[in-house]
Specification:
five-stranded antiparallel beta sheet; 5 strands; 9 helices; globular; Structural Genomics Hypothetical 15.5 Kd Protein In mrcA-pckA Intergenic Region, Chain A; Ribosomal Protein S4 Delta 41, Chain A, domain 1; 42% helix; alpha+beta
Length: 200
């Protein structure tokens, strides 16, 4: 399945939450009404399966992952000791593109994925171009030297919000201090519904 390239705000309206940067105003203006001329008419109570499917789709879109890759993440999480849902979210949170985003190097996960793909990110001093790269505790994630003086990057760094407690950053160099707890992971995702979806 190809990556979605249409209007991003349609996805946010479909899920009823701002999935991307600057989508909050769009939702305030149009509400959580699904896109299309029959959006209001289609807003009906979902079945149990429908709720599970929507939650899986929402998580995929938040982290920018395709169907097969997301399914593989779930299969791997189901083999980990402990709660499968928490293991799934942990794997998603520790993706390099997500770490780059959480460190404030990019305004969105899509932007962070682009930085990684274009070779602008290093892990422990080595260039990594794979957005799904699994970052481990104590690893150092940094912007490449050639982006240090980039005006757009400087603007993003200056406007970045407070970092999660499991990360630290000084200028263009960040570090993963530890694995995040469930309360520090993505709060808009109900992982239990995703587990139920794949357990059908």
């Amino acid at each position: 399945m190809a990556r979605y390239t249409g209007p991003k705000r349609r996805l946010s309206r479909r899920e009823g939450i701002p999935l991307f940067t600057k989508d909050e105003k769009a939702l305030e203006r149009k509400g959580a009404i699904p896109p299309g001329s029959h959006g209001l008419r289609r807003k009906k109570k979902l079945s149990e399966y429908g709720l599970q499917l929507r939650e899986k789709q929402k998580a995929k879109r938040i982290f920018g992952i395709l169907e097969r890759q997301f399914s593989n993440y779930f299969k791997a999480a189901s083999k980990v000791r402990g709660e499968t849902g928490t293991a799934l979210l942990k794997a998603l949170e520790m993706r390099l593109d997500n770490i780059v985003y959480k460190l404030g190097f990019a305004q969105s996960r899509a932007g962070a994925r682009q930085l990684v793909s274009h070779g602008h990110i290093t892990v422990n001093g080595k260039k990594v171009t794979i957005p799904s790269y699994n970052v481990k505790n104590e690893q150092v994630v940094a912007l490449s030297a050639k982006l240090t003086d980039n005006i757009q990057v400087k603007k993003v760094l200056e406007s970045s919000t407070t970092l999660p407690e499991w990360l630290t950053r000084k200028a263009t160099v960040g570090k993963v201090l530890r694995t995040p707890g469930r309360e520090e992971m993505e709060q808009s995702v109900n992982e239990q519904l995703i587990v139920e979806f794949y357990s059908r």
